Amino acid sequence: MASVNLAVVRTDDWTGRHGRSGIDKRPADGPVLFTETGAQGDVVCDTRHHGTWYQAAYAFDVDELAFWSAELGKELVPGNAGENLTLTGADTSSALVGERWAIGDAVLRVTGPRTPCRVFAGFWDVPGLVKRFTRHGRTGAYLAVERPGEISPGDRVRLLTQPDHGVAVAEVFALTTCGRTDLAEHVAGCLPDLPEEWRATVGAKVAASRASA
């Protein structure tokens, strides 16, 4: 674990109609309590698209920050992708939907991919970022908190359980956002492990693929 990050509320022009955003997250000095509603001390401004129980935390990789730093010619540091948890030696986009992690005192469950938005592009000040980020397809993972607990910088991520379906977060994103209908039957295996709202969206993509086959 490279860092645990909390929001600094921004009111820049790119925050859009809400006028406020918590996407700018900065490393905390010590342990942070994670509960079913998120990280204590964090701020969610757009509650329509963020902050539900299945988005209680968001994890992203140091390696992906390094990739985008090289791509964009600017230094991105932990928290810059809007993530609460910046992980080292982990590939969050390859995590399986429904797998469970122990970090510090907390137990977290992978719920699905992050979808990039205009606020994200505005924060990075990169026109066209949404399309580029989508095309790259390495979104990081949203997490639900199964057991509340404190997480500290440097804590190890321990894999507790993995589902048998083998469906990665990146594969769900590829089907729903990138039009990879060839993945529909495979991704259908993770439907029981998705939050109800996302299950309906992914299920509709699977059904459409089957109908056109």
From TrEMBL:
Protein name: MOSC domain-containing protein
SUPFAM superfamilies given in the database record: PK beta-barrel domain-like
Source organism, top-level taxon: Bacteria
Domain MOSC: start-end pairs: 26-160
Species this protein is from: Saccharopolyspora rhizosphaerae
Cross-referenced InterPro entries: Benzoxazolinone_Detox_Enz, MoCF_Sase_C, Pyrv_Knase-like_insert_dom_sf
GO MF term list: catalytic activity; molybdenum ion binding; pyridoxal phosphate binding
Classification via Pfam families: MOSC
